[in-house]
Amino acid sequence: MSNGVQVYMEYPIKGAFLHQYEATMENVHQCMRELGVEKIEWYASPHYHNRYIEVFYVPTESHFFALKKLRTYPRQELFGKLMECIDGGPSSIHYIALKKCS
Fold first, then answer.
1. Burial of 16 (C-beta count, 10 Å sphere; 0-12/13-18/19+)
2. CB–CB of 55/43 below 8 Å?
3. What Å distances lie between residue 1 and 21, 47, 58, 102, CA to CA?
4. Domain locations in the chain?
5. Are strands 51-58 and 5-12 parallel, antiparallel or unpaired?
6. Do 10 and 51 form a contact (C-beta atoms < 8 A)?
7. What pLDDT score does 79 carry?
8. How many whole angstroms separate alpha carbon 102 and alpha carbon 14?
9. Which of 19, 80, 18 is nearest to 49 (CA)?
10. What is the helix, strand, coil percentage profile of the chain, to 5?
11. Averaged in consecutive runs of 10 residues, what is the pLDDT profile of the chain (102 residues)?
């Protein structure tokens, strides 16, 4: 996917929801793979308590915007469950999408 878009997501997790969040992420990443997402990496920040970072590739910018909308849709069963865990809700998710220039 050399012409794809690399995406970084960073967000805080509510302390009381840490176990639910970690259990949900396996299903989240499986769903993302089914939607065409590749090279998914998932990190916990060593410097900031309960902050997580996801890095992955999507084929196009359109895929990025569609996935961003889906990931924050509260009525979608899987991603709605994930949103319950994020401290501050969708507005606390920071996104960076990068397209390679050369």
1. exposed
2. yes
3. 29, 31, 8, 14
4. 5-99
5. antiparallel
6. yes
7. 85
8. 39
9. 18
10. 45, 30, 25
11. 85 94 92 92 90 96 92 82 92 93 78
Q: Tokens representing 59?
A: 């084929």
The residue behind tokens 């050399």 is: 2
Helix (H) or strand (E) segment spanning residue 102: none
Q: What is the pLDDT of residue 47?
A: 86
Listed in sequence order, the residues at least 6 apart from 79 whose beta carbon sits closer than 8 Å to its beta carbon are 28, 70, 71, 72, 73
State the burial class of residue 58 (Cβ atoms within 10 Å of its Cβ: 0-12, 13-18, 19+): buried
Q: Could you count the other beta carbons within 10 Å of the beta carbon of residue 3?
A: 8
Q: Which fold has domain 5-99?
A: Alpha-Beta Plaits (3.30.70)
Residues 82 and 11: beta-carbon distance below 8 Å: no
